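Lab notebook, entry 453. We have the chain sequence and a SMILES string for flavin-adenine dinucleotide, and the next step in the workflow is to get a structural model of the bound complex before anyone spends time on docking refinements. Request logged below.

Task: model protein plus flavin-adenine dinucleotide, output structure tokens.
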Amino acid sequence: MGISSPARLNIQTWRSQWKNRQCSILQRRLRIGPPPEASSVLTQPPLSLPDSDANTARALSGRAIIDYYLHMQFFAHQPLPDLGPYVGLRGEIRAFLAEERQRAGIDQWVGSWEGHDRDFSARLAERGWVGMALPTAYGGHDKGILERYVVFEELLAGGAPVAAHWIADRQSGPLILRFGTEAQRQHFLPRIASTEYTFAIGMSEPDSGSDLAAARTKAEWRGNGWRINGAKIWTSNAHRADWMITLCRTGDVGEDRHGGLSQFLIDLKAPDIKIRPIQNLAGDHHFNEVVFEDHNIAADRIIGSPGDGWRQVMNELAFERSAPDRYLSTFRLIVELVRAAGATPDHAIAGEVGALYARLVGVRMLSMQVAAALDQGKTPNTEAALVKEIGTALEQDTPEVARRVLSETPDGARDGLLEELLTYDTLHTPSFTLRGGAREIVRGIIARGIGLR
Ligand SMILES: Cc1cc2nc3c(=O)[nH]c(=O)nc-3n(C[C@H](O)[C@H](O)[C@H](O)COP(=O)(O)OP(=O)(O)OC[C@H]3O[C@@H](n4cnc5c(N)ncnc54)[C@H](O)[C@@H]3O)c2cc1C
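Result returned:
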């Protein structure tokens, strides 16, 4: 049964009053200022979207700006960082990627996070674009967050195959730098920066994904080393990686459930470790189950102190979750969609594509603010979680919008690349809000951050 117009109007009025009230309560609680001017939202064309297309899309729709504003209310705003000094760097990376595509004999890459190519990663490292955050004393490049942000953006926007080095670069290296022994730093960090060593993440278990504290993989002290028994699951690229930082139970749970956990460096090439493939929805082998049966490791493979694993793993997740790039998985599809819509799309298509584009620009501006805050040594966990939440929502909506738009566009607008991107993104959509922490968990972090829990 439909709702009559006056009733609908009442519901809408009530909703907007409620939202305004919530926003002002939260704004007072957070002591944040009003969001920036709407016009500033659209001032920076993102990444490599051609200017003519950017202009078309920019003129299309402002509907999504409303969503953007609602999220902006909860954001501790700060001036956008000046990425101007890195224009030259962007050019260098784009030229490098063009060369790499030529070398690979392809016009474009489709998957990025899942594209695994050790040789590509090694050549990227030769240019100094891996281990950028690590100190030069350990083979790194001592670069700031903003410079890395530009590199991340260009690689993901270009669809480059980053999976081989991404995890070590983003979280394993920084974790070893912060909690490892001097000997571990000297051994592992230069090999991470050169991509000689690649890493996997050993957190999730069959009965412990979101609830990491329930981890049951056990490490027992045997007098001169540790014996590991248990299983990890959903381990990305364990079949290709050299090492895995693995969360294990080494003692009693303790009162707050977070005690008795420790992290270990596990050599994945050890012959007694079983790595079983798990096919993902697209039919690809990306995930694995990693099984340990009386696997012995040396005493010096523990990271940090026994029992300190929870604090460490939360730090590792913070490196993973604060990466301000969680909105670019479907960027290439948006670009191709803008192209397919053409310079003079009809009103409905203009609205759909324009809304998508406006969301992209909005999320990018929030993401840049997270990068700026990190650059200033702040820990913007709530803001980073917000970017992940609305960034992954954008990623998940993109294939849906693309399908609607393409059903209205002439067949000629659908070229092979567009079809390929649409298929790839559709099949990978469910993973966008799971990896790096499921949506409900991220929303819980946001709720806590803004004082609702
Ligand atoms: C592409 C991809 C790559 C991954 N790579 C790795 C990897 O390399 N290493 C690794 O260790 N893991 C990896 N994961 C696993 C990922 O981190 C977990 O899938 C995720 O943490 C969720 O755990 P789970 O699958 O056990 O689901 P569960 O924790 O069982 O959750 C199932 C559902 O219940 C909800 N839920 C759970 N707890 C709560 C709660 N307290 N309140 C409200 N809702 C809740 C969740 O949000 C989710 O929707 C990867 C996942 C994906 C999709």
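Notes for the group: DSSP finds 15 helices and eight strands in the chain. Worth checking against the assay data. The first strand starts at residue 199 and ends at 202.
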